[in-house]
Design brief:
The chain has 11 helices and 22 strands. By secondary structure, it is an alpha+beta fold. The protein has 3 domains: 204 residues, Hypothetical Protein Pfu-838710-001 (Beta Barrel); 124 residues, no CATH class; 65 residues, no CATH class. Strand 6 and strand 7 form a beta hairpin.
Length: 451
């Protein structure tokens, strides 16, 4: 378990001030490049885990570290995450970045990859190919200082959408370390706040969290709709949209920035709105991810806005072309099935990106949804819990639901119910799974049984 203090700095000027103050204690600087991987069907992310390859481009002592991180929790500026690391040859790391299938070949020689195979793929490596895909990554300039018995790392992290400045300090006594660092920052007039999300979470969100100064008072929210689901969304969401341009705000409801290759979902006989979309000139298959949005607009409107923004840079595929690429969604191309649909493996020509049946060509993953079932999921880390607030669209209506996976469900339920009651949010116990509701063809009768 890695336990560390995480404090955010507001801007580059504050970053420069802090590094100047700590200059006498500087011991080294790391030029890092972080890249992340997941299974084609979300085998790792579905269990709150991610595989990372970190390159240290420090001349002449370059090195490469592969790391498995899982079940991260960040509360009051203290992060706790299960972490397992192992050094691999730098050139092998570069090969894996260029071709993620190369990772499957490390199962016998790399302890981390053996864990990935056994814990997330049921011990089956499919003849040396786990089907991992690269999610992309970001660069990080890390200055390391030894100060008052602490090892303090001051980071300048460069994302495609902005730059994050952050302090990290790993410690077995994080509260004491945090108190000592905060005292130093206050004495020197250095502005800061508790970090509210990990760098990986920020990368996946596609935007920097809203800056909030430490002890700046209670933040207030106003419900944007008379529906309880939107009110819960407003209460739980920490980062706001500071840039209101179309590309930055994500009003289309999807995040594209981290993807070189994207596979969307489709259903037959439904017009051009349901085509599979992929950017041109790409090399590795990646999975489309829905991003958060607090807008109460309809899902159809979000899809339309999404298509207006991205159709300039994408290649479109018809449903029939997808059938060809996946061998008519045949059993030999089937990968996995979830509550909302099935995932199939398909192939595109590496040069033309046209559908083909050659296993040696570019592999893709295609999710075929059950008829008229879409789910918009917002994920929040709150008081040590991972809370998922869903808007599920069936052919016969919409369902709004809260989900929270926990090893202590009774305690988690009590904590969530207390929060809902304090904020006047109506709720009841769910009485059927989404799949059961889908099969029944109607929404359950609403029973509000909480006073």
């Amino acid at each position: 378990m890695e336990v560390e203090v995480k404090l955010r700095l507001p801007d580059s000027n504050t970053y420069k001030t802090l590094t100047s103050l700590l200059a006498p204690f500087h011991v080294r600087t790391h030029n890092q490049h972080n890249n992340f991987f997941d299974g084609a069907a979300g085998e790792l992310s579905g269990r709150r885990a991610v595989l990372r390859i970190r390159f240290y481009n420090d001349q002449p002592a370059r090195k490469c570290i592969i790391c498995l991180k899982a079940k991260a929790v960040l509360i009051n500026g203290v992060s706790r995450v299960e972490e397992d690391e192992e050094e691999i040859d730098f050139s092998i790391g570069e090969e894996c970045l260029a071709n993620p299938n190369r990772l499957g070949g490390l199962v016998e020689s790399c302890r981390i990859m053996k864990r990935v195979k056994d814990e997330f793929f049921g011990g089956n490596d499919n003849n040396g190919e786990l089907g991992l895909v690269c999610l992309g990554g970001f660069k990080n300039l890390r200055n390391v200082y030894e100060w008052k018995g602490l090892v303090i790392e001051v980071d300048e992290t460069s994302f495609e959408f902005g730059t994050l400045y952050e302090i990290e300090c790993e410690s077995s006594e994080p509260e004491k370390a945090k108190e000592l660092i905060e005292e130093f920052l206050k004495e020197n007039g250095v502005g800061y706040s508790d970090s509210v999300a990990s760098k990986f979470a920020i990368f996946r969100a596609g935007k920097l969290p809203l800056w909030q100064m430490r002890d700046s008072g209670t933040r207030r929210f106003v419900a944007t709709s008379n529906k309880s689901w939107f009110f819960i969304h407003a209460l739980l969401e920490l980062p706001d949209k500071s840039n209101h341009s179309e590309e930055a705000s994500g009003i289309m409801g999807f995040t594209w920035k981290m993807h070189k290759y994207i596979v969307s979902t489709t259903k037959p006989n439904s017009g051009p709105r349901n085509l599979l979309c992929a950017p041109k000139m790409v090399e590795s298959p990646l999975i489309l991810e829905q991003s958060r949005t607090s807008s109460p607009q309809s899902l159809n409107y979000k899809i339309e806005q999404h298509e207006k923004l991205v159709t300039r840079d994408i290649k479109m595929f018809t449903y029939d072309e997808l059938k060809l690429a996946t061998r008519n969604f045949g059993n030999d191309a089937f990968l996995v099935e979830g509550s909302y649909g099935k995932v199939y493996k398909g192939w595109l020509n590496k040069t033309t990106y046209s559908p083909c049946k050659d296993d040696a060509e570019l592999p893709i993953a295609v999710k075929k949804l059950h008829r008229y079932t879409l789910n918009l999921r917002n994920v929040y880390e709150w008081k040590g819990l991972v809370i998922e607030v869903d808007e599920t669209s069936f052919e016969f209506g919409s369902l709004y639901e809260i989900e929270c996976e926990s090893s202590e469900p009774e305690k988690a339920k009590e904590l969530i119910e207390e929060f809902l009651k304090e904020n006047g949010v109506g709720y009841s116990d769910s009485v059927a799974s989404k799949f059961a509701i889908f099969r029944s063809g109607k929404l359950p009768l609403w029973h509000r049984d909480r006073g």
